[in-house]
Amino acid sequence: MSTQLRVAMAQLNFLVGDIPGNTEKIIVAACKARDEEQADILVCSELALSGYPPEDLLLRPSLETRIEKALQALKARVQGITLVVGYPAHKSGQLYNHAAVIRDGVVLFEYSKQCLPNYQVFDERRYFTPGERPGVFEYKGYKVGLSICEDIWHSGPVEQLKALGVNLVLSLNASPFHQGKVKERLEVVRSCAQACAAPVFYVNQVGAQDELVFDGGSMVVNGEGSLCYLASHFEESLSYTDVDLWEGRVNPVASSAMMPDDEDSLYSALVLGVRDYVHKNGFKGVVLGLSGGIDSALTAAIAVDALGADKVEVVMMPFRYTSSMSVEDAELQAKLMGVKYSAISIEPIYDTFMSQLSDRFQGLKADTTEENLQARCRGVLLMAISNKTGSLVLTTGNKSEVAVGYSTLYGDMAGGFDVLKDVSKTWVYRLAAYRNLRSVIIPQRVIDRAPSAELAPNQTDQDSLPDYDVLDEILALYIEQDLSADAIVARGFAAEVVNRVIRLVDINEYKRRQAAIGPRVTQRGFGRDRRYPITSGWRAGE
């Protein structure tokens, strides 16, 4: 019996809930792998039939029927190649995060995920029952181990595979991206391969689902822990590797992708996040306010790279405080990108609002109310264009602003998707410079000028906020690392500044609950990843 095995890794972009569509993608990939590359096994990602994460769709009464229909289609239409496919499975009244090995219409083996993550963005214990037995089956006289995502991050399932003497490990994953995740993931796979002294085929999902971005990067690591093959990141792929089950030797059929650097991976994640959110939800395109500032400039650039210039519309909405530099730079960037551009002054709209409010405001001095009204005039215009054209409004607030509430409800927060929601201001500058290395589409003045909302004369962000270098470090320590105020002060920051920043974060939770979602790209993003009460008597520093 031959000890050679050709394994196909199906790194596919699934749509949550589209079980027939996901099934068809798997069938097409399996037939292609069989016919074009004579692959023996096709390995799909975690919960491939339902897409990941299916959330409360797992509670729908018809789920079991739909999954069973999909499995029957796989059994009937895929012959001559072994399928390893993940799906939610009902067994004895319980629901499992499950995988099956199918060959010529017969289920050869089944495995249920043992370690169910219930932290950060994961809440699998809400739905699934953990599996209780190791995932090892015999194939061509050799032992093949099955693992599902979180399993290889824990010693228990890995030790089971080691004890049973597996010759090969197939790992099905839906591992979302965050900065630094690519290297973290590689070390975990290496550790598993070395512990088992066997090659590990790690297949990851690709594509964006609401806040989550899955970056792919499927890989093959040999029993010594060396990376033998790396699939591309942020795009679908069907890749092949030959493995000798007796010797444990792996031989990739194609050349490996490069490990992405920090700027490239973050920018690509944002592009994929926008593309999939727009396409999967059926929007015709996007529209955003292009202010002449760096946040909207970067958002527009990402949108064009994600969708194409013909799907992006930008609107400059000047007011009496808008500088001529802002108007010139917005128009120039629109021209460089080749997008639809228009300018609509909010002055008459604002004046009408103020006229109608004059009696109510009489005797009251001007304050942030007037500034917020400007932002709300712009929000109304963008939402009207969205309603009329079927385009999604992209908001442009970055993580630094979202954290401290430096934004206006129903104004610049009005929209459906915030591209930079989990990107700090310092990273906004880095990404703008990175994007201009490919081709200059963001005017240099936009990058060089002091940031300003231009809602008042001679206004800059630092009138009311610490320098962004300082602010972003404090925010990262508080939000992403959960450090206390005292611990942050001990890092060398002024106590007054730290306490003020933390207080701003805490009291602006109500705004964030009403904000548009955006792609999660750090280890702790606002949204499903960070859940704090709006109504609270908690005070930092006590």
TrEMBL record:
Deamido-NAD(+) binds at N372, E401, K511. Keywords: ATP-binding, Ligase, NAD, Nucleotide-binding. Pathway: Cofactor biosynthesis; NAD(+) biosynthesis; NAD(+) from deamido-NAD(+) (L-Gln route): step 1/1. Its EC number is 6.3.5.1. InterPro entries: C-N_Hydrolase, C-N_Hydrolase_sf, Gln-dep_NAD_synthase, NAD/GMP_synthase, NAD_synthase, Rossmann-like_a/b/a_fold. One of its GO terms (cellular component) is cytoplasm. One of its GO terms (molecular function) is NAD+ synthase (glutamine-hydrolyzing) activity. ATP binds at G289, L290, S291, G292, G293, I294, D295, S296, T396. The active site is at E46, K113, C149. GO terms for biological process: NAD+ biosynthetic process. The keyword Lipid metabolism does not apply. Transmembrane segments: none annotated. It catalyses: deamido-NAD(+) + L-glutamine + ATP + H2O = L-glutamate + AMP + diphosphate + NAD(+) + H(+). L-glutamine binds at Y119, S175, K181. It comes from the Bacteria. Residues 5-245 form the CN hydrolase domain. Catalyzes the ATP-dependent amidation of deamido-NAD to form NAD. Uses L-glutamine as a nitrogen source. HAMAP family: NadE_glutamine_dep. Belongs to the NAD synthetase family. In the C-terminal section; belongs to the NAD synthetase family. This is Glutamine-dependent NAD(+) synthetase. It comes from Nitrincola tibetensis. The gene is nadE.
